Automatic annotation (TrEMBL):
Cofactors, names only: pyridoxal 5'-phosphate
GN (gene name): GPH1_1
Molecular-function GO terms, alphabetical: 1,4-alpha-oligoglucan phosphorylase activity
EC number: 2.4.1.1
Protein name per the record: Alpha-1,4 glucan phosphorylase
InterPro entries associated with the record: Glycg_phsphrylas (IPR011833), Glyco_trans_35 (IPR000811), Pyridoxal_P_attach_site (IPR035090)
Phylogenetic placement of the source organism: Eukaryota, Fungi, Dikarya, Ascomycota, Pezizomycotina
Organism: Podospora pseudopauciseta
Keywords carried by this UniProt record: Carbohydrate metabolism, Glycosyltransferase, Pyridoxal phosphate, Transferase
């Protein structure tokens, strides 16, 4: 009723709702899937009536707005806060956050040593609240975002009048930099310091807020874990473990053991990666400089932990070095994942394979120490309210007409009812018409944004996600080049028999990630050649959609025929875009990695296209590459030769991409999986030609996606980790 009222009201004013919606910027609060997952969780927490708060930084410019200029990624500011009607400034909620300084110790009247963190710099955190309404419930939770400003908040007029213009605003600028940009480039030392500042600023302000509310209840401190559960979403907020211990020790006067027991029973840690290079570490000198008291506490946490390990495993000296929070390198490093494990009562992965891998690889020593019960799995999920009902309203209405209403939006298992209609001709025709309409909408967007004309009846092949070597967009574009060369070698008669395809890419590369930027450049260079080849015509088009975000995802995902989730086996923790694509009636080509495995189990092997080596084979293959012979796949070598001929631009531009595979060990197994990938793409072509069977696969897949709801996911966290129950809010009379 509310939506129809909005549509009618806007029409009376002479506006379309689509035009109004386009005025709103995407919130620039997350980096790819992890940020979007947090948004799904907030939606589910409110919709399921769990009393929960989200905390984050109010980034002034987000990560960045991506522009493609001459085929290269260029980063420009994202001015999303210029129009943000959903936030409420809370200038009455401010927190002073301390950096730098020194630690002085004294003895109190009870003979207890007390630490005093003094001096340094103070930055003020100002709260901004964003309401998170639940679906079909009056429950509304809160997302509190912190903005940074100088503690004094005053312009130094005296310095300005004396001609010291830069210094007059230096404090304000330095403070505001903390919440300016998501993930500042950390290739420079100043960038590393700013990232660490962001992390501490965020967790210190949030914990102050959490502790303040708890203290108002007048409960004893031992009840804190019964009233508060904090989930660490990856390692970025791990300093919260140290900060809560500092608050309890230095500010509240608790003894170490009592404080540490509260801390470990409060926190849970969700790991999101098995990539060793992605496990966050900070140098000891940097933490000493920025957070001197916290480094002392980290060393104490590590000492007590290692002492307990040594008591239990006295003969295993090497174990101490492997599990130590402090890495004995030059300089010494603080292993944030180790700190998160030691400081939490539960550690979970986000897909079954991922959770098994963390227990048998990167964290196997901790399983030995703490036992297997500390480690669990909670497979990720997505909210159907956003990723079906809003993104694909016609499909949502069609499903609703067969499930007896919109109950599937709160119980996704209701989708299984549509499998009864898999042979219903009218249902199948409407299903196909919706897909075609979504593809036509995407085709218009591609023409308007990229200037490329594509045929909506072609197979739409989509890979949209953060650009990273482990996600293997390079494998995809090498496959596109192979397809192009194969088509070029055919006669015109042979080409007429081939399946037309549009390869669609989107995603951002981190500003300091040069190799990822080269992948984007190659995709655009290949597109420039292929899209202008008259011999190929509409048989193959290559499109890179700049500045991929949630709004664009809502156009792209419902239009997909096949989506690519092709990470090297054992590297993708879960993935959630795979779930979004299948929920919208698209199929997957993917590796046996992350949640692909569970999706296969749910929808059936006949409805997904799997290829490539398995996770258990990866290390042996890498070892063989390093110490044995490494034969490049013949077809892939032909692709490399074409690139080196200059067909797609300067031969030097893409030399590093080729060398990573040919000369430097092929860490992500591009060559090993290439033949399987090409063969499986041929199976996709064959399957798509039989549209009747293809539609059957799509309907069946959607019907079996009930498991992948973020509601199921949040219920598992609530029961298995947080120990909380829903708190239903009753509607007021007349509401």
């Amino acid at each position: 009723m509310l939506i129809s009222n909005c549509l009618a009201g806007l029409a009376d004013l002479g506006f379309r709702i689509e035009d109004v919606i386009e005025q709103e910027h995407d919130a620039a609060l997350g980096n790819g899937g992890l940020g979007r997952l947090a948004a799904c969780f907030l939606d589910s927490l409110a919709s399921l009536n769990y009393p929960a708060w989200g905390y984050g930084l109010r980034y002034r410019y987000g990560i960045f707005k991506q522009e493609i200029i001459d085929g290269y990624q260029v980063e420009v500011p994202d001015y999303w806060l210029d129009f943000n009607p959903w936030e409420f400034p809370r200038h009455d909620v401010t927190v002073d956050i301390q950096f730098f300084g020194h630690v002085r110790k004294s003895t109190d009247e009870n003979g207890r040593t007390v630490a005093h963190w003094e001096g340094g710099e103070i930055v003020k955190a100002v709260a901004y609240d964003v309401p998170i309404p639940g679906y079909a419930t009056p429950s509304t939770n809160n997302l509190r975002l912190w903005s940074s400003t100088a503690a004094s908040g005053e312009f130094d007029f005296q310095k300005f009048n004396n001609g010291d213009y830069e210094s007059s605003v230096a404090d304000q600028q330095r403070a505001e930099t903390i919440s300016a940009v998501l993930y500042p480039n950390d290739n420079l030392e100043r960038g590393k310091e700013l990232r660490l500042k962001q992390q501490y600023f965020w967790v210190a302000a949030s914990l102050y807020d959490i502790v303040r509310r708890f203290k108002k209840s007048k409960r004893p401190w031992k009840e804190f874990p019964e009233q508060v559960a904090i989930q660490l979403n990856d390692t970025h907020p791990t300093l919260a473990v140290v900060e809560l211990q500092r608050i309890l020790l230095d500010l509240e006067g608790l003894e170490w053991d009592e404080a540490w027991n509260i801390v470990t029973n409060t926190f849970g840690y969700t790991n999101h990666t098995v990539l060793p290079e992605a496990l966050e570490k900070w140098s000891v000198p940097l933490i000493q400089h920025l957070l001197p008291r916290h480094l002392q506490i980290i060393y104490d946490i590590n000492l007590y932990f290692l002492q307990s390990v040594e008591r239990r495993f006295p003969e295993e000296r090497d174990l101490l070095g492997r599990v130590s929070i402090i890495e004995e390198s030059q300089p010494k490093m603080v292993r944030m994942a180790h700190l998160a494990i030691v400081g939490s009562h539960k550690v979970n992965g986000v897909a079954e394979l991922h959770s098994d891998l963390i227990k048998t690889t990167i964290f196997k020593d901790f399983v030995t120490i703490f036992g297997p019960d500390k480690f669990t799995n909670v497979t990720n999920g997505i909210t159907p309210r956003r990723w079906l009902h809003q993104a694909n309203p016609r499909l949502s209405e069609l499903i609703s007409s067969k499930t007896g209403g919109k109950d599937f939006l709160t119980d996704l298992n209701e989708l299984n009812k549509i499998e009864l209609y898999v042979k219903d001709k009218a249902f199948r025709k409407e299903w196909a018409d919706i897909k075609l309409a979504n593809k036509e909408r995407l085709a218009k967007h591609i023409k308007a944004s990229a200037g490329v004309t594509v045929d909506p009846t072609a197979l739409f092949d989509v890979q949209v996600k953060r650009i990273h070597e482990y996600k293997r967009q390079q494998l995809n574009i090498f496959g596109v080049i192979h397809r192009y060369l194969t088509l070029k070698a055919m006669s015109p008669e042979e080409r007429k028999k081939q399946q037309p395809r549009v390869s669609i890419f989107g995603g951002k590369a981190a500003p300091g990630y040069w190799m990822a930027k080269q992948i984007i450049h190659l995709i655009n260079s290949v597109g420039k050649v292929v899209n202008n080849d008259e011999d190929i015509g509409d048989l193959l088009k290559v499109v890179f959609l700049e500045d991929y975000n949630v709004s664009k995802a809502e156009i792209i995902i419902p239009a997909s025929d096949i989506s690519e989730h092709i990470s090297t086996a054992g590297t993708e923790a879960s993935g959630t875009s795979n779930m979004k694509f299948v929920l919208n009636g698209g199929l997957i080509i993917g590796t046996c990695d992350g949640a692909n495995i569970e999706i296969t189990r749910e929808i059936g092997e006949n409805n997904i296209f799997l290829f490539g080596n398995l996770a258990e084979d990866v290390e042996d293959l890498r070892h063989a590459h390093t110490y044995g012979t490494h034969e490049i796949d013949t077809d892939l070598n032909r692709v490399f030769q074409e690139i080196e001929k200059g067909t797609f631009g300067s031969t030097q531009d893409f030399a590093a991409l080729i060398s990573a595979v040919r000369d430097h060990g092929d860490y992500y197994l591009v060559s090993d999986d290439f033949h399987s990938y090409i063969e499986t793409q041929a199976l996709v072509d064959d399957a798509y030609r039989n549209q009747e069977e293809w539609i059957t696969k799509c309907i069946t897949s959607v019907a079996r996606m009930g498991f992948f709801s973020s509601d199921r996911c949040i219920n598992e966290y609530a029961e298995g980790i947080w120990n909380i129950e829903p708190l239903r809010v009753e509607k007021e009379e007349g509401a």
